[in-house]
Amino acid sequence: MRDGAAARNAAGATAGHGGPSEPPRPRGDGPAAAAGADETSGQNSGHHGGGSGIPVGGTGEATAARREGDRLRFVGAATRRIARGIDLDEIVLGLCRATVPTFSDAILVYLRDPLPVGDERPVGPVVLRLRRTDRLRPIDDLTDISSTIGAGMDLAGAAGATGELDFSQLPLVGPQGDLPAAELCEIRPGGALAEVLRGVRPVFGSSAAARAALPELLGVDHPLPRGNRAVLAPLRGRRRVIGAAVFLRSPERPAFEQNDLLVAAQLATHTALGIDKAVLYGREAYIADELQRTMLPDSLPQPTGVRLASRYLPAAETARVGGDWYDAIPLPGSRVALVVGDVMGHSMTSAAIMGQLRTTAQTLAQLDLPPAEVLHHLDEQAQRLGSDRMATCLYAVYDPVAHRITIANAGHPPPVLLHLGGRAEVLRVPPGAPIGVGGVDFEAVELDAPAGATLLLYTDGLVESRLRDVWTGIEQLRERLATTAQLTGLDHPPPLEALCDDVLDMLGPGDRDDDIALLAARFDGIAPSDVAYWFLDPEETAPGRARRFARRALTRWGLEELSDSLELLVSEVVTNAVRYAERPVTLRLLRTDVLRCEVGDDSPQLPRQRRARDTDEGGRGLFLVNRMARRWGATRLSSGKVVWFELPLPGAQERR
Questions:
Q1: CA distance 19 to 177
Q2: Displacement of CA 86 from its chain's centroid (Å)
Q3: How many CB atoms lie within 10 A of CB 485?
Q4: Are 101 and 253 in contact (CB under 8 A)?
Q5: Is 51 in contact with 260 (CB distance < 8 Å)?
Q6: Tens of pLDDT along 168-223?
Q7: pTM score, two decimals?
């Protein structure tokens, strides 16, 4: 367990017989040990020189001055070692490594379970859990300890026979994880341990308070050392005691001195404050991470004519919180809006702004605004949030019927389109200015979206890092997509999930400076033969014409058994549209995995389902739609509204 175990054993054996000895060889990885070794280089000193365990030399006042100097240097090195830790385990490990073997031969660190965070008050009993133990020398064979201390003699008897218990013969942690010291300890209000912890200051194990408190902490069967060879130090954070540390020395070493209590107090204070900060940092990082993840979509929709896959990776531990987001929003007419954005900065504020912009984008998408208009309104919203609230965003709308995609960009990296034949193309989209700049016009472009192609939207964390610029990263991404397509074959596109994983594999060790959002869309489209579209004048004859058109389309598709249901529902929805429309009503049927009917008009008023009374002549249309359709809904558009419903195809399992 320790590199200097053999040297320490030899030194302890010599000191135990009263002869001259070399100072204990400090661990090479301990800053406190290094400080003590440098300071005593060339001195002829031993354990008898000082109770701190740090070698000293000289006599009289010079010895006392050197001893205090060594203590100060040790405390400085030990506290620096403790302060280097960021999380809880690193801080506790720093305390153990800094004190063993320079200050003590063994240490036990107990912490409250659970640890309180901030100002929260515990509601249950206070419980201490043994968090970590450390000791100077391991015992390789623990199967015959009784033969070492005397046949038929228990541990307490061994201590009584020798006057003091030799801790070098007893491990703090056995090879199977068995603990001679208690792993859990509940602090009894008004008990001896509670009184010592309330006193805050470290105490010798030989004091009356400690001898009553240690059995409560370590267990009644745990042997206690004689003399001042144990120090019980409470660990007090900013507001309350959060644990305790027990420092132990073997009989081969001088006992603790009065000034060693000051050393233990310094170590305990720095450790407790570091633990407090680590717990607060961990809770804050957890809250920020959960905040961002809850603002991202739990699952992606599965709209008709397109398949979707996504990935999100947080940044490195030093900057886990970011403002990257993605979204896929179903739109009227079987279209879908694809959004990816990146709020500048890494903080909880960035995550909160991301959530606000994402909500705004969803609201604007439901209004069916053009992509450039959506970015314009997002820019206005970002300016209302603050003058320094900036973000990049790319907003695209895919139409599976027209096999076209319309894209508008606000300072975001351009998307990459992977064609069916394996060619990867960086789309030429006007870059635009980031959201939040203000006073900038956004331009949208309309491009072909052939069936079988895959569109990849991403944030700059995927292609930009300290080791490469953004355009180098985009070129590497394009080459990676082309290589993946070559491996899977040119006659069919690569699987979406595997494609996303393969794209993320291009990240190197130094490429995680920023969080990453990735959205992949596979364009399947809807064939023209599966679409039927009509315009109906807002007249009384419109419902009858709609029924005839629907019947002909079902006959052409071989779905005659749906005629009765479809004609009834189409008649009800078209009748309601004609009642309020002033311009021609649109009727569209789509045959995919379901039969979808869409009726559009220029009235912005959305229909509401209500329960008709027995004496009412109308008001039952939407009730029939709700009862007979698999799904239905109504969406307000900038030019009116669309009411739609879906019927399951014959032979398909109905999922209501």
A1: 37
A2: 17
A3: 22
A4: no
A5: yes
A6: 444 344 333 344 566 777 788 878 888 888 887 888 988 888 888 888 888 777 77
A7: 0.64
